[in-house]
Model the fold of this input.
Amino acid sequence: MKQEKEIIYFITGNNHKFKEITKLFQKEELDYDLKQKTAATIEIQASNIKEVALFKLNSVKTNFNNSYFVEDAGFFIDVPLKGFPGVYSKFVLNTIGNEGILKLINDYWNTAAHFEAVIALYFQPLDKIFIFEGSVEGKVSKEIKGTSGFGYDPIFIPNELPNNTFAELSTEEKNSVSHRAKAWQKLLIFLKAHH
Ligand code: ITT
Done:
């Protein structure tokens, strides 16, 4: 008889993130089933997203006996904003939005930017927490372009696919270079090594 697969939960209220990870997950032969869970989490204001992710993970109140992970991401405009919005990404998107961001950097020719993602995993078999990080370098687009993806996707052009913003790419294309996919690849290696 085939053994039941163990469930691993991705705790996120963001369906876009879950869709991206699901696409990557489906490509793999794993001993796990991935499920989304929207549990209450606390998002603190810290100086880096790793701290935010760890705190978020520790704030999850579970009554299940499974492994689970959270992810925190941030958008960093290195030039000319010295990394802003970074840990303030959510607040800035909800206040001034992509239009406000473009106004801030309107006069600049160089607009180097990157995304970072940190996955914090509670791994039940070892009763331990593990961290997986990924980033993608690129620049801020001169205009808002594209309708797929979410958040800052319409204004970010990755260096590896320099003709499009993330919002002009399919999920598969975004996954081929994204911060989230890179962090996921590391989590995947871990899961394969610990089955
Ligand atoms: P959780 O429930 O998983 O916490 P969230 O939507 O609160 O989801 P984050 O705090 O990790 O997400 O993200 C901070 C902000 O950065 C938020 O406004 C997102 O829209 C944006 N963001 C995160 N990942 C992104 C990506 O891949 N592309 C564009 N914007 C992204």
Observations:
- The mean pLDDT is 94.
- The pocket of inosine 5'-triphosphate is lined by residues 12-14, 17, 71-75, 89-90, 93, 115, 149-153, 166, 180 (CB under 6 Å).
- Helices lie at 15-26, 49-58, 89-95, 97-104, 171-177, 179-193.
- The domain at 6-193 is CATH 3.90.950.10 (Maf protein).
